[in-house]
Write the structure tokens for this entry.
Amino acid sequence: MLNQLTIKEAREGLQAKKFSSVELTKSCLEQIKKLDSKINAFITVCEKEALEQASKADGLASQGETLEAKSLLGIPIALKDLFSTKGIRTTAASNVLKDYIPPYDATVVKKLKDAGAVVIGKTNLDAWAHGSSGENSDFGSTKNPWNNECVPGGSSSGSAAALAADMCIASTGTDTGGSIRLPASFCNTVGLKPTYGRVSRYGVIAMASSLDSIGHFTKTVEDSAILLNVTAGHDNFDATASDAYVQNYTESINKGINKVKIGVPKEYLLKGIDKNVKKRFEQTLKELEKLGAIIEDVSLPHTEYGIACYYIIQPSEVSSNLARYDGIRYGNDRFYFGDEAKRRIMLGTYTLSSGYYEAYYKRAMQVRTLIKKDFDKAFTKVDAIITPVSPTLPWKLGEKINDPLKMYLSDILTVTVNLAGIPGLAVPMGIVDPSTSSGQALPAGMQILGPQFSEGLLFQIGHAYEQATNWHKQKPNL
Amino acid sequence: MIARTISMKIDVSHIAKLANLPISKEEKEKFEKQLSETLSYIDKLNEINTKNVEPTSQVTGLENVTREDQPSPSLSQEEALKNAKSKYNGLFKVKAILENEVSKTSSNLTIEQFNNFLC
């Protein structure tokens, strides 16, 4: 089935004229029609535009357009509905923007289209990226393709689920506190959170401006590198985008990990971690050692303050970024905000208000320095750090929805990465039996962390592990 | 030195007004409870000694990113107005904020008279 291909396989097939982009796109659209009424991964499906773009891609291919010029020619990609797409509704999964049609493309969208990608649709998410489960969407929750009673993780719930269900060949997401890595882990896909500023944020609806990272979901690590080659780079429209050198991320992917030093922070193997997730993680470390890596203990002493620090800085920045939604220039007025958005706006307004700014926001920024220094120190000892993405397997829909604080604590292993601005690559580490019930086995992922702009190393490690274990080849029963 | 703990009670009505968020009475109670729980949790940060620690807001070390002050093409007026629910004569139309005699007669005032009125 064409929709089950990876980017690499699809490109080879298209170049060899085994099939066309129109056929590949139709295969994805068929899968969406078949399954999405159950999974609810998409808010908008761009059938007409996608087939037009696919047809155009086939035309360019027949005229000899090369992969060097257009590395994603004819590849159907789904975009998280935070990415502004010119002429195509962009909602942020909120009723505030349910009829908003952007008059411009985000820089990343423009880059993907210039590389020849076919935009197949806009995926569901927690509204405004506020959430860890996909349940805060004004367009209904997305279901985990591995078990429809479980959450797919959030906030990039639709992008992860769509990919896991083979409704697209790749998808985009954003990660502010774990919103790519957690759903990637819960849906058995690869998820990349690049270094802060590696990919332009222009045109992506902002959540927290000092934390937002623009990334993507793919079926393999190599596909992830192919996509980063397209999206990475400086942008005049984003003053926080870095002009750090963009290497060719696919070049060093096969180097292997002999003598690579990998740190495991003891603070991440929490008391409350699911014992089967812990067991699988420990086996993963042994698998890495077999491939030549050297596993060492490291310490990140301020880990336990990550959530407290994050839940001051992020809502503060959210309250500022969401002030623009007044219904005047676009969208509906603030009455249309959902509960979680209101909570975060109020929390942020409070922590930034006169008399409280020093005690909360300024203090959190100081703790942020300490958290970043923990990582800087650890990276003088080791090349990369590996931890589980989540202390638990995907939980049941509805389980945490009435306890916002409990939901926030789901991000306990992911937020420190955003505070430090470092990259994280989530890679499947196995399908694990739940230890607390007799339910079916569910995906678990690990995250590979490195110093800022070390994505090349993360791909090298992830690819070596993936090729030796093949977890990514397992598919949900659809 | 540990900082003094700030009171956990959050005045939801006041905060909602500052943030221009419409909140019903039922919502007020619900949010009060949920926000207080969150605030109690984030109070954890008071355990840390942050004396002499520099705050970090820009995590990749960028400073003073500027460009040449050259205007360049942006959105057309039509594109910018496309999603507005209320427009008039190529402009965004909003509710009046000055509702007294001044708004009706301001066009007859001199600049000096108008400024005197504002002061």
The first strand of chain A starts at residue 42 and ends at 45. Chain A has 14 helices and eleven strands.
